[in-house]
Amino acid sequence: MSALNSVVIVGGGQAGYQTAASLRQDGFAGRITMVGDEAGVPYQRPPLSKAYLLGKIGAHALRFRPPEYFDEHRIERLHDRAIGIDRSTRHLHLESGASLPYDHLVLATGARNRVPAVPGVELDGVFGLRTLADADALAPRLAGVRHAVVIGAGFIGLEFAAVAAAKGVAVHVLEIGDRPMARAISKPMSDLFTAGHRSWGVTLDFKLGLARIVGSDGRVCGVETTDGRVLPAELVVYGIGVVPNAEIAIEAGLEVHNGVRVDAHLLTSDPAISAIGDVASFASPYADRPIRLESVQNAVDQGKAVAARLMDKPAPYGALPWFWTDQGELRLQIAGLADGHDRTVQLGSAESRQLAVLCFRQGRLIAVETANRTPDHMLARKLLARGTLLTPEQAAEPGFDLKAYEAATRP
Ligand SMILES: Cc1cc2nc3c(=O)[nH]c(=O)nc-3n(C[C@H](O)[C@H](O)[C@H](O)COP(=O)(O)OP(=O)(O)OC[C@H]3O[C@@H](n4cnc5c(N)ncnc54)[C@H](O)[C@@H]3O)c2cc1C
């Protein structure tokens, strides 16, 4: 049972939807209102840069649930934008002029694309990829172009590159760092993905920046790099990271630092307000400083955790982070956080495109990255969640097998 009468959720994305669904599943009988500034039924983002962009699935398949679900479960959806929080009277102010009272407020506002600060970014044919509207604008353009330039070799830029290459577009990726997905994965795994993209015909240029986007008659026709080259491009897609949508939290005086700061129970500095998903900065047992994660796992598990707390079943949030990305024939899955690793051990081989990279920090396993080795990913999730004592020396022994090790050390 919960003593609350009304929960208002700002944001109808992965985390917002999950909170509402879990509240009802856990027996919450009060009023649930989701306020979202995107039109339509809540949907999942991962396929936008994968199956949806490839044309393999339609928009209906993106929906978490059909529209009837929300009516049947008395989850009210308001298409509106939250513009302010009055914490003293517990009211959320909306752009339409309406104002919603809440007993508890959940901020699940996600993040938005960081836009490159260069001339030409406003030209027709330059896209970010965050929303269904972005994907719907981008997809038809793919059909008619010969050259595309991708700014940033992060997950979304590379997923787009793989899709565009599969559609016969000549793709050139510019990355200011020295390898792909460098913030999140180890060098051996980056190298495998570099080789994969090159084998699909994608050109990758590292340690190279963007000077400006070049246009003709208002449409993009090229990209000038910081070394003075002009690359042809009728389409430019940027994926250079995101900015958390934390403005209403800042204005309301909540603690914000790279996202809305929350405690171990995902509560902000106001006990009547939680923050979850891409917008939340939290302490994790898997990191030595507060982190903000941009993943489905994080949004889902945090939504469930807040719903459980509101139903008087509080537990400190400590879920193991995991993530996946699909690029061409390569499926990368990551369990744990590789940040700060000082040693890696590889299982399988890059040549076979079935590789596992075990990442250790000070002798302790902190993350496992797998390419096309889903069973190992599932085993790694179990091992990391239970705090395995596997050492790099053990993992490097000839014939080491994750499955046998997991079975032998099962509590
Ligand atoms: C193209 C793409 C591919 C991805 N692929 C993967 C993947 O393969 N694997 C993976 O784990 N993760 C992936 N992700 C990340 C994952 O989708 C996000 O981590 C997840 O959607 C975060 O959920 P969220 O609810 O926190 O934020 P969001 O899903 O962004 O939802 C936030 C919602 O709040 C709305 N909003 C913001 N401010 C306001 C306001 N003031 N008032 C009302 N509404 C507001 C936003 O418009 C948005 O609709 C991908 C993301 C993208 C964009």
SSE inventory with pairings:
Layout (H helix, E strand, L loop, with lengths): L5 E5 L3 H12 L5 E6 L14 H4 L12 H6 L2 E5 L2 E5 L4 E4 L4 E3 L2 E4 L3 E3 L12 E2 L4 H12 L3 E5 L3 H12 L3 E5 L12 H13 L3 E3 L4 E7 L2 E7 L4 E3 L2 E4 L3 E3 L2 H5 L8 E2 L11 E3 L4 E2 L14 H15 L11 E6 L2 E7 L6 E7 L4 E8 L2 E8 L2 H12 L6 H5 L5 H7 L3
Helix pairs in contact: 1-8
The structure holds flavin-adenine dinucleotide (FAD).
Describe this structure in words.
The chain is an alpha/beta fold and 411 residues long. It has three domains: 6-112 and 243-310, FAD/NAD(P)-binding domain, CATH 3.50.50; 115-240, FAD/NAD(P)-binding domain, CATH 3.50.50.60; 329-408, Enolase-like, domain 1 (2-Layer Sandwich). The chain has helices spanning 14-25, 51-54, 67-72, 132-143, 155-166, 187-199, 247-251, 296-310, 374-385, 392-396, 402-408; strands at residues 6-10, 31-36, 75-79, 82-86, 91-94, 99-101, 104-107, 111-113, 126-127, 147-151, 170-174, 203-205, 210-216, 219-225, 230-232, 235-238, 242-244, 260-261, 273-275, 280-281, 322-327, 330-336, 343-349, 354-361, 364-371. It has a five-stranded parallel β-sheet with strand order 3-2-1-7-19. Strands 9-16-10-11-12 form a five-stranded parallel β-sheet. Helix 1 (14-25) packs parallel to helix 8. The longest helix is centred in the C-terminal third of the chain and has 15 residues, at 296-310. The protein is globular, with a radius of gyration of 22 Å. The structure holds flavin-adenine dinucleotide (FAD). Residues 10-16, 35-38, 45-46, 48-49, 81-82, 108-110, 129-130, 156, 245, 248, 277-279, 294-297, 299, 323-325 line the site of flavin-adenine dinucleotide (FAD). Residues 10-16, 35-38, 45-46, 48-49, 81-82, 108-110, 129-130, 156, 245, 248, 277-279, 294-297, 299, 323-325 line the site of flavin-adenine dinucleotide.
